[in-house]
Amino acid sequence: MRRILLASVLALAPAVAFAQGADDNANPPLPPSGIGGPGAGWSHQGKRHHWMSPEQILMAFYAANTSHDGHLTLAQAKAANFKPVVEHFSEIDANKKGYVTFYDIQAWRLDEFAKHLEKRADELRAKDQ
């Protein structure tokens, strides 16, 4: 399991390094209100969500995936109390496979984040008019 975890973290390292090194002098855009800092979260469909880093999601995924096959079932997510996955399993499992992968979770998470950014951009455009 350590080898899989290490390989997964190392696979993410080049993307993180590239993103950080691409333009070190640029100021990143501000995240939607509530997202971004330790303990931060966002509101979605009347629920408050905790914002987890990719590393935290990876660690939670591997802890919950007791079969160590890279496929997290709803039962495994419930047993591990992996709330974001449990609450949104049907959305994350878009292809209705009966399980989700780490990449499925990340894709859903980025889609949700993009929706929040679009909503915030629309709010700001409305203030400008």
UniProtKB/TrEMBL annotation:
Signal sequence annotation: 1-19
Signal as UniProt keyword: yes
Key words of the record: Signal
InterPro entries associated with the record: EF-hand-dom_pair (IPR011992)
Annotated source species: Acidocella aminolytica 101 = DSM 11237
Region (Disordered): 27-47
UniProt-recorded name of the protein: EF-hand domain-containing protein
Domain of life according to the entry: Bacteria
